[in-house]
Amino acid sequence: MNIILLIAVIFTLGLGCEGLVHHDHTMSNNSVKPSFNDKPCQKNNDNNAYNKFTKKHIFQYEFNTASTDEWSMYLKKLKLCNRPRQSFIRKKDEERVQNICNGSGWRVRGNLCVSDSPMMVYELNVKKNCQVKLLGNGSNYVTVACDKIENRCLPVHYEKTKYPLPNKKRQRCGSPA
Question: pLDDT digit string (tens) for 57-74?
Answer without folding.
Answer: 999 999 999 999 999 999
